[in-house]
Amino acid sequence: MIEIHSVTKTYDGFRALGPLDLTIDHEHVVTVIGPSGCGKSTLLRLLAGLEAPTSGRLAVDGRPIVGPRHDIGVAFQDPRLMPWLTVRRNIGLGLWDRPAEERRAAVEAALARVSLGAFAESLPKQLSGGMAQRVGLARALVARPRFLLLDEPFSALDPLTRIQMQDHLLDIVGDEIPNVLLITHDIEEAIVLSDRILVLGGPPARIRRDLVVDLPRPRHRASAGFQALKTLLLDDLFPRHGAGAEAA
């Protein structure tokens, strides 16, 4: 369970976020969408323990988030691979404090999860964009986190590779990774992947809509239900095109 209680974040007198209250429990994939600058990445950095809130409390499974933790994995838009390290060594970077055999087994399992075993000794410059993004995802998965944070992880990919990565994410979410929080600007991606969608407005970031996505999987972009949700979310993000919505 992820809990956010009365959280705010202020930078030099400018409130970027909150107060925000949110609980994520049984939903596998929760997606946050909103206009640029509304506070989405601020929320992710707080949950990752990369920044501290100005006020309020964040916790995972009842344990306060007070810094980076092994049970919270993070993958960014830029995979941020070390160019001089192989795929295998990039994935294992965060496990430097583990025993050698445990580290090796964890890295091999992460390689298998993203289907990159054949490229374990390759350097980042030898990888395609989609493969590099999978390495970043494997690095986030290697410690078997309880909670995975994804900040626009597929936005730089071509459309076909992006769809393949979306499918791959759905394949590994569930028992292995109980919860994912995804930030994206792509409304269709949000609908395809999510059990729940949060629409943020701001600054300061606040939840304008909290929407449960009850469409059956696999989700077809041309279906009436899919298009109805897309129209609803577009109206939230661009009220001039519709009535808009406040928190539901």
Structure commentary:
The protein has 248 residues and is α/β, with parallel strands linked by helices. The chain folds into two domains: 163 residues, 3-Layer(aba) Sandwich (Rossmann fold), CATH 3.40.50; 64 residues, no CATH class. Helices cover 30% and strands 25% of the residues. It has a six-stranded mixed β-sheet with strand order 6-7-8-3-9-10, with helices on both faces. The protein has a four-stranded antiparallel β-sheet with strand order 2-1-4-5, with helices on one face. α3 crosses α4. The C terminus is likely disordered.
Major sheet: 6 strands, mixed
Mean pLDDT: 88
Counted beta strands? 10
**CATH first level of the largest domain:** Alpha Beta
CATH-defined topology of the largest domain: Rossmann fold
Task: Give the topology string: H per helix, E per strand.
Answer: EEEHEEEHHHEHEHEEH
Q: Considering the protein shown, what is the CATH homologous superfamily of the largest domain? A: P-loop containing nucleotide triphosphate hydrolases
Question: What is the CATH architecture term of the largest domain?
Answer: 3-Layer(aba) Sandwich
Q: What class do helices, strands and sheet pairing give?
A: alpha/beta
Could you give the order of strands across the largest sheet? 6-7-8-3-9-10
User: Can you tell me the residue ranges where pLDDT is under 50 for at least 5 consecutive residues?
Assistant: 241-248
The value of Rg in angstroms is: 18 Å
Shape: globular
Count of individual helical segments: 7
